[in-house]
Amino acid sequence: MTLTAETAAPAPAHVVPLPPRSWRTPVLLAVAAVLTLVVFGFLGRDEMTSFVWSGSGDTVVVPSSPASPRVLGLVLGAISVLVAAWALFSAWKRRPVGIWASIVVAVAFLACLMAWVGAGGQVLIPFLLTNTVALSTAIVLGAMAGVIGERVGVVNIAIEAQLLGGAFTAALVSSTTGNQIVGLVAAMITGALISMVLAAFAIVYVVDQVIVGVVLIGLVTAVTRLLYATVLGPDSQTFNNPGTLPRVRIPLLADIPVLGSVLFEQRLTTYLMFLIVPAVWFVLFKTKVGLRVRALGEHPQAADTVGIDVNRWRFWTVTIAGLIAGLGGAAMTIGSVGAFVNEMSAGNGFIALAAVILGRWHPIYAALAALLFGFASAFRIWTNQAGAAIPTDLIEMTPYVVTILAVTLVAGRVVAPRAVGKPYIKG
Prior knowledge:
Strands 2-1-3 form a 3-stranded mixed β-sheet. By secondary structure, it is mainly α. The protein is built from 17 helices and 5 strands. The protein is globular.
C-alpha cells in the first residue's frame, strides 16, 4: 500500500516543556508554619498577652485585644500549615505560589512570636509601628539610591559611606550653624560628593565598581573616626549637639486610629521619605527621563545609538542618587539620635542593598523590603524592653538574620539590570 499525503501519519505536535518545579519558597513556608504550630502552639505559653492598639495621647482609643499565646499559636499555626501545604501542592503541579502565601505565613509567625515574647504583659503595636517607620527611613532612602544607581548600570556599594558621611555632616553642620535644615542640605551634598567620587572612578577611569565602593566605605569610616576623635569628641557641646528635627503633626490625619500617629506625626526626614519613594517610581516608570535611565542599565549601546551620552547620564544619575543617600544619613542623626556616633550606619547601607535585591530593583518593593528590616530592628528594641528570656546577643542579630533569610528566599529568582556593573566604553 502506497502512503499518500492523506494517509500518512500526522507530524507530532510541538510539545511545550513543562516549567521546572520551584521548591525553595514552599519548603521555607512549610518550615516556618511547622515552627509556628509546634513552638508557639504545642509548646507555647499560657500567660495572657494584651495587644495594645492605641497610645496614651491618641484621640480615638481602640480597645486592647487579650489573647493566649498558646491558642494563638495553635490557630495561626494550623492556618500556616494549610497555606504551606497548598504551596507545596502548587509547586508539585508546577504552578506559581502567590506572594499572599508568604505574607500569611510571615504575619502568623510574627504575631505568634510577639504574643510569646509579651506573655504576661503587653504588645505595644503603636510603639512597634512608629519605630519601624523611624528605623526604616535611612534604609529606605539608601535603597532608593541603590535602585537608581543600579537601574542606570552602576553598582552603588558605597551607600554605607554615603549614609555615614551624611550622618556626620548633618550633625557637625547643624551644631555649628544652629540650623538643622542647613545640616540636612549639607548631608545631601556630602552624599552627592561621595557618589561623584564613585562615579568618576567607575565611569571615567573604568575601575571595578565594587572595589571603589568598598574603598570609599573604608575611607569615609576612617575620616569620620578621626574627626570624631579630634573635633566632635573633645567638644561635643559645640560640634556634636545638633538635636533632632521636631515632630510635625498633621491635623485630622494624625487622629486616624492605630496608623495616624505612625504615619502623620513624624519628622521632616520621614515625610521626605514618603515623598521620595513614589517620586522615584514615577520618574523611573512614567517619564522619558526614567526610560533613558532604565535603557542605560539594560542596553547602553542601544541608548548610545540614539544619541544619549551614556557615561554623562550615568555620572549625574549616580550623583543624584547620592543626594538621596545623604538625606538618609541625616535621618540617622538629626532625624533620630540627635548626635553622631562612630560607625553609626552599622551596616544599614548593605541592608539597603539587600532591600534593592529583595525588591527586584523596583522602588516600591524595595521600600517595603526596607520596612521589613526596620521592623526587625524595632522588634529587637521592644524585646529588650519587654525583658524577654532571649539572649541579648541573639536579639542584636535579628536584623541581619532577617536580611540573610530574605535574600536567600529570592536568590536565583530575580534578575538584575543586564548592564549593571559593566562599564561602557564607546567603540
